[in-house]
Amino acid sequence: MCLAAPYQLEATFHAVGMSPPPPALAESAPPATGRRDPLEESEFGFPAGVWRSLTRLRPSGARRARTWRSPLRGPWLTSVLGAVLLVSLPLVTITGLLSYIAYGPQFGQAFPREVGWLRLPPFEWPTSPAWLYVLNQGTHVILGLVLIPVVLAKLWSVVPKLFEWPPARSPAKLLERLSLLLLVGGVLFEIVTGVLNIQYDYVFGFSFYTAHYYGAWVFIAGFVVHVAVKLPHMVTALRSRSLRSELRTSRSATRPEPLDSTGLVAAEPAAPTMGRRGALGLVGAGSLLLGVLSIGQVVGGPVRRTALLLPRGRTPGSGPNDFQVNRTAAAARIDPGETGEEWRLVLRSPTGRRRFSRRELLAMPQHTATLPIACVEGWATTQRWSGVRLRDLAELAGNPVPGWARVSSVETIGAFRAATLQANQVLDPDALLALRVNGVDLSMDHGYPARVIVPALPGVHNTKWVRDIEFGSD
Ligand SMILES: Nc1nc2c(c(=O)[nH]1)N[C@H]1C(S)=C(S)[C@@H](COP(=O)(O)O)O[C@H]1N2
Ligand SMILES: [Mo]
């Protein structure tokens, strides 16, 4: 229940040296502000009897809503934060859904596998530009992190509304407020699961992908209703003040927005502890800091060390193999006996089966391509790979124009030990079974004896320690 919250907040006010209104004031009649007080007013919308009992059921904490006294709260500030989220949250959402499609739901390898009528239209994920998935996941993860302060500020700006009583003045309002539950619950759930996933492996008792996917749809439903209901109010509120002059207004010159029916403006505003410029600056600085602490994972080079918020892959090798490793050979329990002299690559197609040693593969025409590996978690690393073209291997297998290729590895544990590639991902001239990187043999951790590297492919499908490729036609 939220009833305890206002009291805790009162304690917070004391802790930060602000004084809540004296109890006598809070319990006395509201000052003559012209604002409608729902407690003293009968309303249409609900039948009078329902309204009266709702009012009577008012929890004692509800009136404490008047302890929310920041003079900054108001429709303008809420709308500025709302406008930022209106343009940016759809980007985070769409890149997330695109990533689901990039995983190849048509092969049953996007999680969750079965999503019923929430199925997205699958399309062939392109192989060009090669950095497409770096851009997609960099945007999804880094923008998602950067928006956390904005989301929190937006929630802070509307928090008095959570304590309004009765919670809705009409059935339509009640529905609108229920949609807020989806919106706020959805966005917080996506933030928490997303952040935990880039920080740790498997901290959930459930599949991260499944939770994050359905959570996204809950958020989308709440977001669409909220935007439809609030957009006209947002536009009006944005026009009520000029951003430029707010950014020029000092703390001492800051005045509350005029009282209105939104319930956002404090009836008894306290003196400002910062101006709107300061508040927006604080949120902006928080976002900037999160961006600076994340961007290195995509940029790479020495800047990678600044990526404190995306800590995966800090176990690189040495020399030319000294770059990001997410999952080491030891972690994947790769048996060294399986990747030594005895190792053979098995190529299969409807017409037969062939085996090649690593020496034989190295004797074939070698191709070199500078390509990124981009993980769903937002990090990326670009290296110079060389090896045999996948389309040459398809031809050797006897299926030069395959419909798909199923790549399996020596690994026996782990969800990512095998992957299916689309036709375009096999036939791209830069799609490789890489044997070497940056001029030397792959290290064990980077997938020796051979790994898949395909432009714009989600990192997860760049299978390491490859043993078997089946080129299929159906
Ligand atoms: N056999 C196998 N290949 C794999 C994986 C794995 O767990 N097993 N991990 C994948 C993932 S999730 C990524 S992002 C890329 C790059 O991971 P790396 O940094 O561990 O090389 O390898 C992919 N190839
Ligand atoms: Mo990954």
UniProtKB/TrEMBL annotation:
Signal peptide: none annotated. Residues 18-37 are annotated as: Disordered. SUPFAM superfamilies: Oxidoreductase molybdopterin-binding domain (SSF56524). It comes from Actinopolyspora xinjiangensis. The keyword Membrane applies. Pfam families: Oxidored_molyb. GO terms for molecular function: oxidoreductase activity. Keywords: Membrane, Transmembrane, Transmembrane helix. This is Oxidoreductase molybdopterin binding domain-containing protein. The chain crosses the membrane at residues 76-103, 141-159, 180-200, 212-231, 279-299. Residues 340-471 form the Oxidoreductase molybdopterin-binding domain. PANTHER family: BLL0505 PROTEIN, PROTEIN-METHIONINE-SULFOXIDE REDUCTASE.
